[in-house]
Amino acid sequence: MALYQQEWKNLAIFGAEPAFANPLYVGRPNIGNKQLLFERIDDMLSRRWLSNGGPFVQELEHRIEKLLGVQYCIATCNGTMALQIAARALGLEGEVIVPSFTFVATAHALSWIGLTPVFCDVDRLTHQINPTEVEQSLSPQTSGIIGVHLWGRACNTESLEQISKRYGLELMFDAAHAFNCSHKGQMIGNFGKLEVLSFHATKFFNTFEGGAIVTNDISIAEKARLMRDFGFLATDTVVSVGTNGKMTEVAAAMGLTGLESINQIIETNFYNYKEYKAALSDIPGISILSYDETDKNNFHYIILEIEEKVFGMNRDQLLQILNAEKIMVRRYFYPGCHRCEPYRSSPNYRGIRMPVTELLSDRVLALPNGTALGHGDVGKICDLIKMIAKYSKQIRHALTNTKVQVSGV
Predict the structure, then answer these.
(1) Is residue 350 domain-resident?
(2) pTM higher than 0.85, yes or no?
Protein backbone atom coordinates (compact mmCIF):
# COMPACT_ATOMS: atom_id res chain seq x y z
CA MET A 1 0.00 0.00 0.00
CA ALA A 2 1.43 3.36 -0.99
CA LEU A 3 2.69 5.54 1.81
CA TYR A 4 1.45 8.66 0.05
CA GLN A 5 -2.25 8.47 -0.88
CA GLN A 6 -3.46 12.07 -1.15
CA GLU A 7 -5.23 13.23 -4.28
CA TRP A 8 -3.47 15.72 -6.51
CA LYS A 9 -5.71 18.59 -5.41
CA ASN A 10 -4.24 18.29 -1.92
CA LEU A 11 -0.69 19.00 -3.05
CA ALA A 12 1.15 21.68 -1.09
CA ILE A 13 1.57 23.79 -4.20
CA PHE A 14 -2.21 24.27 -4.11
CA GLY A 15 -2.21 25.28 -0.45
CA ALA A 16 -2.18 22.01 1.50
CA GLU A 17 0.33 21.10 4.19
CA PRO A 18 3.71 19.90 2.81
CA ALA A 19 4.48 16.20 2.84
CA PHE A 20 7.53 16.86 5.04
CA ALA A 21 7.72 19.11 8.09
CA ASN A 22 11.43 19.83 7.53
CA PRO A 23 13.11 20.33 4.15
CA LEU A 24 14.94 17.40 2.57
CA TYR A 25 17.97 18.81 0.76
CA VAL A 26 20.12 17.44 -2.05
CA GLY A 27 23.69 17.19 -0.75
CA ARG A 28 22.92 17.62 2.94
CA PRO A 29 26.22 16.79 4.69
CA ASN A 30 27.02 13.31 5.92
CA ILE A 31 28.44 13.46 9.43
CA GLY A 32 30.68 10.77 10.92
CA ASN A 33 31.09 9.88 14.59
CA LYS A 34 30.69 13.21 16.41
CA GLN A 35 32.48 12.02 19.54
CA LEU A 36 35.57 11.03 17.57
CA LEU A 37 35.48 14.37 15.75
CA PHE A 38 35.28 16.28 19.04
CA GLU A 39 38.19 14.26 20.42
CA ARG A 40 40.30 15.18 17.40
CA ILE A 41 39.35 18.85 17.69
CA ASP A 42 40.26 18.83 21.39
CA ASP A 43 43.60 17.23 20.51
CA MET A 44 44.18 19.88 17.84
CA LEU A 45 43.42 22.71 20.27
CA SER A 46 45.70 21.23 22.90
CA ARG A 47 48.56 21.10 20.38
CA ARG A 48 47.73 24.64 19.15
CA TRP A 49 48.56 23.54 15.62
CA LEU A 50 45.67 24.75 13.50
CA SER A 51 47.12 25.02 9.98
CA ASN A 52 50.36 24.84 7.97
CA GLY A 53 50.53 21.12 7.29
CA GLY A 54 49.70 19.75 10.71
CA PRO A 55 49.54 16.06 11.67
CA PHE A 56 45.86 15.66 10.76
CA VAL A 57 46.44 17.01 7.24
CA GLN A 58 49.45 14.74 6.81
CA GLU A 59 47.49 11.73 8.04
CA LEU A 60 44.54 12.50 5.77
CA GLU A 61 46.83 12.79 2.75
CA HIS A 62 48.45 9.43 3.54
CA ARG A 63 45.09 7.73 4.01
CA ILE A 64 43.77 9.07 0.70
CA GLU A 65 46.95 7.93 -1.06
CA LYS A 66 46.41 4.44 0.31
CA LEU A 67 42.68 4.39 -0.42
CA LEU A 68 43.09 5.47 -4.06
CA GLY A 69 46.39 3.75 -4.72
CA VAL A 70 48.09 7.00 -5.77
CA GLN A 71 51.61 8.14 -4.97
CA TYR A 72 50.83 11.70 -3.90
CA CYS A 73 47.92 13.58 -2.36
CA ILE A 74 48.10 17.33 -1.81
CA ALA A 75 45.20 18.49 0.39
CA THR A 76 43.83 21.97 -0.28
CA CYS A 77 41.37 24.43 1.26
CA ASN A 78 38.76 23.66 -1.41
CA GLY A 79 38.29 22.00 -4.78
CA THR A 80 38.34 25.23 -6.78
CA MET A 81 41.73 26.16 -5.40
CA ALA A 82 42.89 22.62 -6.21
CA LEU A 83 41.81 23.15 -9.83
CA GLN A 84 43.72 26.41 -10.07
CA ILE A 85 46.89 25.00 -8.51
CA ALA A 86 46.63 21.90 -10.70
CA ALA A 87 46.33 23.99 -13.88
CA ARG A 88 49.39 26.01 -12.90
CA ALA A 89 51.37 22.92 -11.91
CA LEU A 90 50.71 21.51 -15.38
CA GLY A 91 51.81 24.76 -16.99
CA LEU A 92 48.54 25.26 -18.83
CA GLU A 93 48.22 28.40 -20.92
CA GLY A 94 45.94 29.80 -23.60
CA GLU A 95 42.88 27.61 -24.13
CA VAL A 96 41.72 24.57 -22.18
CA ILE A 97 38.89 22.29 -23.32
CA VAL A 98 36.16 21.64 -20.72
CA PRO A 99 32.62 20.26 -20.91
CA SER A 100 29.82 22.80 -20.64
CA PHE A 101 27.69 20.35 -18.66
CA THR A 102 29.55 20.67 -15.38
CA PHE A 103 29.54 22.88 -12.30
CA VAL A 104 30.64 26.35 -13.31
CA ALA A 105 33.66 26.20 -10.95
CA THR A 106 35.46 24.03 -13.51
CA ALA A 107 35.39 26.92 -15.97
CA HIS A 108 35.71 29.74 -13.44
CA ALA A 109 38.87 28.23 -11.96
CA LEU A 110 40.51 28.56 -15.37
CA SER A 111 39.20 32.05 -16.08
CA TRP A 112 40.35 33.26 -12.65
CA ILE A 113 43.99 32.49 -13.48
CA GLY A 114 43.90 33.96 -16.97
CA LEU A 115 43.14 30.84 -19.01
CA THR A 116 40.36 30.56 -21.57
CA PRO A 117 37.89 27.72 -21.08
CA VAL A 118 36.67 26.35 -24.42
CA PHE A 119 33.37 24.56 -23.97
CA CYS A 120 32.45 21.34 -25.71
CA ASP A 121 29.32 19.25 -25.65
CA VAL A 122 28.74 15.96 -23.86
CA ASP A 123 27.54 12.49 -24.80
CA ARG A 124 23.76 12.10 -24.77
CA LEU A 125 23.72 8.74 -23.01
CA THR A 126 26.54 9.10 -20.48
CA HIS A 127 26.37 12.87 -19.83
CA GLN A 128 30.18 12.83 -20.02
CA ILE A 129 32.51 14.99 -22.11
CA ASN A 130 32.33 13.84 -25.75
CA PRO A 131 35.81 13.02 -27.18
CA THR A 132 34.64 13.77 -30.73
CA GLU A 133 33.53 17.23 -29.63
CA VAL A 134 36.86 17.68 -27.80
CA GLU A 135 38.83 17.01 -30.97
CA GLN A 136 36.67 19.39 -32.98
CA SER A 137 37.23 22.14 -30.38
CA LEU A 138 41.03 22.11 -30.55
CA SER A 139 42.97 25.08 -31.85
CA PRO A 140 46.64 26.13 -32.00
CA GLN A 141 46.08 27.86 -28.64
CA THR A 142 44.88 24.69 -26.88
CA SER A 143 47.24 23.52 -24.12
CA GLY A 144 45.13 21.02 -22.24
CA ILE A 145 41.91 19.10 -21.65
CA ILE A 146 39.93 18.74 -18.43
CA GLY A 147 37.65 15.72 -18.34
CA VAL A 148 34.93 15.64 -15.68
CA HIS A 149 33.85 12.38 -14.04
CA LEU A 150 30.18 13.27 -13.73
CA TRP A 151 27.91 11.60 -11.15
CA GLY A 152 30.84 9.50 -9.92
CA ARG A 153 31.07 7.69 -13.26
CA ALA A 154 34.31 7.98 -15.19
CA CYS A 155 34.35 9.81 -18.50
CA ASN A 156 36.00 8.22 -21.56
CA THR A 157 39.54 8.34 -20.19
CA GLU A 158 40.93 6.11 -22.94
CA SER A 159 39.82 8.35 -25.82
CA LEU A 160 40.92 11.50 -24.00
CA GLU A 161 44.35 9.96 -23.37
CA GLN A 162 44.68 9.19 -27.08
CA ILE A 163 43.70 12.73 -28.08
CA SER A 164 46.07 14.32 -25.57
CA LYS A 165 48.98 12.20 -26.82
CA ARG A 166 48.14 12.76 -30.48
CA TYR A 167 48.20 16.54 -30.12
CA GLY A 168 50.76 16.89 -27.32
CA LEU A 169 48.26 18.25 -24.78
CA GLU A 170 48.14 18.05 -21.00
CA LEU A 171 45.27 15.99 -19.58
CA MET A 172 43.76 16.31 -16.12
CA PHE A 173 40.45 15.31 -14.61
CA ASP A 174 37.93 17.03 -12.37
CA ALA A 175 36.93 14.16 -10.07
CA ALA A 176 34.83 16.27 -7.69
CA HIS A 177 31.96 13.75 -7.94
CA ALA A 178 34.10 10.65 -8.00
CA PHE A 179 35.94 10.19 -4.72
CA ASN A 180 36.27 6.47 -3.89
CA CYS A 181 34.98 5.46 -7.35
CA SER A 182 36.70 3.26 -9.92
CA HIS A 183 36.84 2.82 -13.69
CA LYS A 184 37.31 -0.68 -15.07
CA GLY A 185 38.88 -1.76 -11.80
CA GLN A 186 41.25 1.23 -11.53
CA MET A 187 40.57 3.76 -8.81
CA ILE A 188 39.76 7.24 -10.07
CA GLY A 189 42.70 9.42 -9.14
CA ASN A 190 45.12 7.51 -11.34
CA PHE A 191 44.10 8.92 -14.73
CA GLY A 192 45.73 11.70 -16.73
CA LYS A 193 48.61 13.70 -15.28
CA LEU A 194 46.56 14.46 -12.16
CA GLU A 195 43.03 14.48 -10.81
CA VAL A 196 41.27 17.00 -8.59
CA LEU A 197 38.95 16.06 -5.73
CA SER A 198 36.35 18.10 -3.88
CA PHE A 199 35.51 17.61 -0.21
CA HIS A 200 32.86 20.32 -0.08
CA ALA A 201 30.05 19.85 2.45
CA THR A 202 27.63 18.79 -0.29
CA LYS A 203 29.82 15.89 -1.45
CA PHE A 204 29.24 12.43 -0.02
CA PHE A 205 32.61 12.71 1.79
CA ASN A 206 33.44 16.13 3.17
CA THR A 207 36.02 17.97 5.26
CA PHE A 208 33.57 20.81 5.98
CA GLU A 209 35.27 22.52 3.02
CA GLY A 210 38.28 21.15 1.19
CA GLY A 211 39.78 19.45 -1.81
CA ALA A 212 42.90 17.69 -3.03
CA ILE A 213 45.15 17.06 -6.00
CA VAL A 214 46.17 13.44 -6.54
CA THR A 215 48.89 12.34 -8.94
CA ASN A 216 51.54 9.73 -9.59
CA ASP A 217 53.96 12.33 -10.98
CA ILE A 218 56.51 13.51 -8.40
CA SER A 219 57.33 16.67 -10.36
CA ILE A 220 53.70 17.76 -10.39
CA ALA A 221 53.32 16.90 -6.70
CA GLU A 222 56.34 19.00 -5.76
CA LYS A 223 55.11 21.98 -7.79
CA ALA A 224 51.61 21.72 -6.31
CA ARG A 225 52.94 21.59 -2.74
CA LEU A 226 55.02 24.72 -3.33
CA MET A 227 52.13 26.58 -4.93
CA ARG A 228 49.77 25.59 -2.11
CA ASP A 229 52.01 27.33 0.47
CA PHE A 230 53.11 30.65 -1.09
CA GLY A 231 56.04 28.95 -2.86
CA PHE A 232 57.85 28.12 0.40
CA LEU A 233 60.37 25.30 0.09
CA ALA A 234 61.40 25.72 3.73
CA THR A 235 61.17 28.34 6.45
CA ASP A 236 62.25 31.69 4.98
CA THR A 237 63.01 30.03 1.61
CA VAL A 238 60.62 31.04 -1.15
CA VAL A 239 61.42 29.51 -4.55
CA SER A 240 58.32 30.21 -6.65
CA VAL A 241 55.10 32.17 -6.85
CA GLY A 242 52.36 30.56 -4.79
CA THR A 243 49.10 31.15 -2.98
CA ASN A 244 47.44 30.11 0.26
CA GLY A 245 45.66 26.89 -0.64
CA LYS A 246 46.35 24.94 2.54
CA MET A 247 43.78 22.74 4.27
CA THR A 248 43.26 23.50 7.96
CA GLU A 249 43.66 20.95 10.75
CA VAL A 250 39.99 21.10 11.72
CA ALA A 251 38.99 20.32 8.14
CA ALA A 252 41.37 17.36 8.09
CA ALA A 253 39.95 16.18 11.43
CA MET A 254 36.51 16.13 9.85
CA GLY A 255 37.92 14.22 6.88
CA LEU A 256 39.61 11.59 9.02
CA THR A 257 36.38 11.08 10.94
CA GLY A 258 34.43 10.80 7.70
CA LEU A 259 36.82 8.20 6.32
CA GLU A 260 36.06 6.00 9.30
CA SER A 261 32.36 6.05 8.33
CA ILE A 262 32.77 6.00 4.57
CA ASN A 263 31.60 2.43 4.05
CA GLN A 264 28.42 3.01 6.07
CA ILE A 265 27.69 6.20 4.10
CA ILE A 266 28.10 4.36 0.79
CA GLU A 267 25.88 1.51 2.02
CA THR A 268 23.15 4.03 2.86
CA ASN A 269 23.52 5.75 -0.52
CA PHE A 270 23.41 2.41 -2.34
CA TYR A 271 20.32 1.26 -0.43
CA ASN A 272 18.52 4.51 -1.26
CA TYR A 273 19.62 4.32 -4.91
CA LYS A 274 18.20 0.79 -5.25
CA GLU A 275 14.92 1.89 -3.64
CA TYR A 276 14.62 4.91 -5.94
CA LYS A 277 15.48 2.81 -8.99
CA ALA A 278 12.95 0.09 -8.19
CA ALA A 279 10.17 2.59 -7.57
CA LEU A 280 10.74 5.08 -10.40
CA SER A 281 12.16 3.09 -13.33
CA ASP A 282 8.78 2.13 -14.79
CA ILE A 283 7.25 5.61 -14.79
CA PRO A 284 6.75 6.81 -18.39
CA GLY A 285 8.76 9.96 -19.08
CA ILE A 286 11.20 9.44 -16.21
CA SER A 287 14.60 7.80 -16.64
CA ILE A 288 16.84 7.30 -13.64
CA LEU A 289 20.62 7.28 -13.91
CA SER A 290 22.09 3.78 -13.53
CA TYR A 291 25.45 2.76 -12.12
CA ASP A 292 27.71 -0.07 -13.23
CA GLU A 293 27.84 -2.10 -10.05
CA THR A 294 30.92 -4.00 -11.22
CA ASP A 295 32.88 -0.80 -10.46
CA LYS A 296 33.10 1.06 -7.17
CA ASN A 297 30.87 4.09 -6.77
CA ASN A 298 29.74 6.34 -3.94
CA PHE A 299 26.12 6.30 -5.29
CA HIS A 300 25.71 9.86 -4.09
CA TYR A 301 23.79 11.23 -7.07
CA ILE A 302 20.19 10.23 -7.71
CA ILE A 303 19.62 11.73 -11.16
CA LEU A 304 16.38 11.77 -13.11
CA GLU A 305 15.69 12.91 -16.65
CA ILE A 306 12.18 14.22 -17.25
CA GLU A 307 10.82 13.93 -20.80
CA GLU A 308 8.00 16.46 -20.87
CA LYS A 309 5.88 15.05 -23.70
CA VAL A 310 5.76 11.60 -22.12
CA PHE A 311 5.66 12.53 -18.42
CA GLY A 312 2.97 15.17 -18.92
CA MET A 313 4.82 18.14 -17.43
CA ASN A 314 8.30 19.58 -17.66
CA ARG A 315 11.18 19.28 -15.22
CA ASP A 316 10.70 22.74 -13.74
CA GLN A 317 7.04 22.13 -13.01
CA LEU A 318 7.90 18.90 -11.20
CA LEU A 319 10.60 20.79 -9.30
CA GLN A 320 8.06 23.43 -8.21
CA ILE A 321 5.68 20.78 -6.93
CA LEU A 322 8.32 18.83 -5.02
CA ASN A 323 9.89 21.97 -3.55
CA ALA A 324 6.46 22.96 -2.21
CA GLU A 325 6.36 19.58 -0.44
CA LYS A 326 9.75 20.53 1.09
CA ILE A 327 11.61 18.05 -1.10
CA MET A 328 14.33 20.42 -2.25
CA VAL A 329 15.29 18.76 -5.53
CA ARG A 330 17.91 20.48 -7.70
CA ARG A 331 18.57 21.29 -11.36
CA TYR A 332 22.07 20.16 -12.42
CA PHE A 333 23.83 21.92 -14.22
CA TYR A 334 21.37 24.52 -15.32
CA PRO A 335 21.70 26.32 -17.70
CA GLY A 336 25.10 24.95 -18.85
CA CYS A 337 28.36 26.85 -18.44
CA HIS A 338 28.22 28.37 -21.90
CA ARG A 339 24.90 30.02 -20.98
CA CYS A 340 26.23 31.43 -17.67
CA GLU A 341 27.86 34.80 -17.21
CA PRO A 342 30.39 36.06 -18.04
CA TYR A 343 30.64 33.56 -20.88
CA ARG A 344 27.18 34.12 -22.36
CA SER A 345 27.86 37.82 -22.96
CA SER A 346 31.46 37.46 -24.09
CA PRO A 347 32.14 37.83 -27.83
CA ASN A 348 34.25 34.67 -27.59
CA TYR A 349 31.22 32.57 -26.64
CA ARG A 350 28.20 34.48 -27.89
CA GLY A 351 25.92 32.41 -30.05
CA ILE A 352 27.55 29.02 -29.44
CA ARG A 353 25.20 26.07 -29.07
CA MET A 354 25.61 22.91 -27.07
CA PRO A 355 22.52 20.86 -28.02
CA VAL A 356 23.06 17.95 -25.63
CA THR A 357 24.12 20.15 -22.72
CA GLU A 358 21.07 22.36 -23.26
CA LEU A 359 18.77 19.33 -23.47
CA LEU A 360 20.16 17.80 -20.29
CA SER A 361 20.19 21.04 -18.33
CA ASP A 362 16.47 21.39 -19.10
CA ARG A 363 15.68 17.78 -18.12
CA VAL A 364 17.95 16.72 -15.25
CA LEU A 365 16.65 16.62 -11.69
CA ALA A 366 18.63 15.52 -8.61
CA LEU A 367 16.86 13.89 -5.65
CA PRO A 368 17.93 13.83 -1.99
CA ASN A 369 20.22 11.06 -0.78
CA GLY A 370 22.54 10.35 2.12
CA THR A 371 22.45 9.66 5.83
CA ALA A 372 20.35 12.77 6.56
CA LEU A 373 17.28 11.03 5.11
CA GLY A 374 15.05 9.36 7.66
CA HIS A 375 13.47 5.92 7.58
CA GLY A 376 10.75 5.83 4.96
CA ASP A 377 11.67 9.16 3.36
CA VAL A 378 12.72 7.67 0.02
CA GLY A 379 9.53 5.63 -0.21
CA LYS A 380 7.43 8.70 0.57
CA ILE A 381 9.25 10.74 -2.10
CA CYS A 382 8.76 7.98 -4.67
CA ASP A 383 5.05 7.57 -3.87
CA LEU A 384 4.57 11.30 -4.28
CA ILE A 385 6.36 11.31 -7.66
CA LYS A 386 4.25 8.36 -8.80
CA MET A 387 1.06 10.17 -7.81
CA ILE A 388 2.22 13.31 -9.68
CA ALA A 389 2.97 11.16 -12.74
CA LYS A 390 -0.50 9.59 -12.58
CA TYR A 391 -2.22 12.99 -12.56
CA SER A 392 0.41 15.00 -14.42
CA LYS A 393 -1.95 16.41 -17.05
CA GLN A 394 -4.54 17.56 -14.50
CA ILE A 395 -1.85 19.09 -12.29
CA ARG A 396 -0.21 20.86 -15.20
CA HIS A 397 -3.54 22.26 -16.32
CA ALA A 398 -4.27 23.52 -12.80
CA LEU A 399 -0.80 25.07 -12.49
CA THR A 400 -1.24 26.87 -15.81
CA ASN A 401 -4.69 28.19 -14.94
CA THR A 402 -3.87 29.32 -11.40
CA LYS A 403 -0.43 30.66 -12.38
CA VAL A 404 1.12 29.15 -9.25
CA GLN A 405 4.66 30.42 -8.66
CA VAL A 406 7.20 28.99 -6.25
CA SER A 407 10.35 30.90 -5.35
CA GLY A 408 13.77 29.46 -6.19
CA VAL A 409 12.97 28.33 -9.73
Answers:
(1) no
(2) yes
